Amino acid sequence: MDKRTLLAFVLSFLVLFLWSVFFTPKQNEISKRHQKQTKQTQETGSSEKKDVSAPLAKHLKNNLPVLPDENIKEKIIHVSTPLYKAEISNIGPSIKSFKLKGYRETVDPSSPLVDLVDPGVKNEFLWLGMSLGKLGNEGVKIFETDAQDVKLDPGSSPQIIKFYGKTKDGVYLEKTLKIYPNQYRVDVSLRVVNQSPQTLKAALVAKVSGQPPKKKGGYYAPYTGLIALADGKIKQLKFKKKPSKELKGNLQWVAYQKNYFMCAIIPEGVNDALFRGIWNPDTGKQTGILMEPEVSIAPGSEIRGGFTLFLGPRQLNVLKQFGKNLDRAVDFGWTNIIAKPLLFTLRFFNKYIHNYGVSIILLTILIKILFWPLTHKSYKSMKEMQKLQPIMAKIKEKYKDNREQMNKEMMALYRTYKVNPMSGCLPMIIQIPVFFALYRILGKAIELRHAPFMLWINDLSAPDRLFHFSFKIPFMAPPYGIPVLTLLMGASMYIQQKMTPTPGDPTQAKFMMFLPIIFTFMFINFPSGLVLYWLVNNILSIGQQYRIQKRSA
Hints:
The protein is α+β, with helices and mostly antiparallel strands. The chain folds into 2 domains: 3-20 and 339-552, no CATH class; 26-56 and 71-330, Beta-galactosidase, Chain A, domain 5. It has helices at 3-22, 316-322, 336-353, 356-370, 372-387, 389-398, 403-417, 426-429, 432-444, 484-499, 506-523, 528-552; strands spanning 36-38, 50-51, 76-80, 84-89, 94-104, 113-115, 126-132, 150-151, 159-166, 171-179, 185-194, 200-210, 225-230, 233-236, 244-249, 251-258, 261-267, 273-279, 286-291, 295-297, 302-313, 466-469, 480-482. Strands 1, 2, 9, 10, 11, 13, 14, 16, 17 and 21 form a 10-stranded mixed sheet that branches. Strands 7, 12, 15, 18, 19 and 20 form a 6-stranded antiparallel sheet that branches. Strand 10 (171-179) and strand 11 (185-194) form a beta hairpin. Helix 5 crosses helix 12, helix 9 packs antiparallel against helix 12 (528-552) and helix 10 runs antiparallel to helix 11. It is elongated and about 100 Å long.
């Protein structure tokens, strides 16, 4: 491979990497739904549900008493399941805390559980209700409830929590939450009975809020903010200068994504809904509002509607099992076609080994075996190219003033000896799609989050650092320490280069000499899992080259 070809390849690699880092796919808007109008009021229930509220028959009478908000005190209902623990307030009602039992903020086992509710939105994280008339809200802030704390064991049946209230205009409101023991799922049912003498305009509304951190999480940190599946495409609502954005159309779900976790709202149906994202540039708070088409409620009539909620990890197999196309939230961009099979393979290995670091090593070996014939042929071709260096030098000297003729003679030489001048690039080229796919997996797949390997490497999704220093190190992102794995990777690249035939061009030879140094600096802030893959691949390539050289000696 000549100097310009190699330079073009390396520059292409860098451009692809920088594009992947800084220009992730854009995304936008969201969802819709179906509503039912009936003249009869019905009680909902099934044999699998257990209602933890007191009987509410008295509240279904037309003369339902109205308790002003100031007479109702806030009540917190504590919910505990095998998967999470939550605090639900009768204000709204709203979720004040939703902590996932299987996930912690850091690798420290004593660190706090991950809370889906950001500190800045404690009282407005999630609201599901109705927009009534000109008010634009329900006219009720604090709801009554007779529900007590809920504790579900793995074998428990789903339980129901009911909230109810009545506006001063005579509109009865009922909100029901169905809690499941072994799922990150909550079903929300809404019921509005118009007991006023006038026809009422109403629209089903869902709001979700979050406050992304002002400091970005790094190059490979997952996206935090509003997201939706609109018209079959994943769309992220990214605010730059405009404080609001709107999406309208076929919205299957909308969500607030918090790094590796998400709170998704799935409407019962999909039909011409509006999703509006609002951003406060001062606080950074984002609010997503999903609104159904407006309907009329005649006096004495009622409407019912609802949403399904997912509050949990963005784990591919969990989301696939949940359904509703939520697995689309795990999007690896243009590497999807490679990344998802790689993630499946990693999960398969980890199922039996229980160590994602070892799983990455096994995956690297598997990939090497698959491409062994191709790389073997490439290394043999490189060896042949080395033998042709004296002849190539004579051709360059003879036709140094006629570049066109020199290229013709070179191509004739390659055909005669059946060698490929691009063979030196091939081993690296075939790694590039796997490299970017693994890069995406380590940045977006929760399976690798806080996944330990061995010794000092306790998080494969973070850069490796042996010891932590208080002073800054050039080119290194915090925490500052010794990037042992990265240095070993650079050393392995240097050894591999020494075993590769020396290019005839002195300029190209110098460039190749600096390549391990360039890659070492590039990899210094990469996830340790990615560095591990490249290191193991280099070691396997060194073994393969040694075997070829020994046979041809």
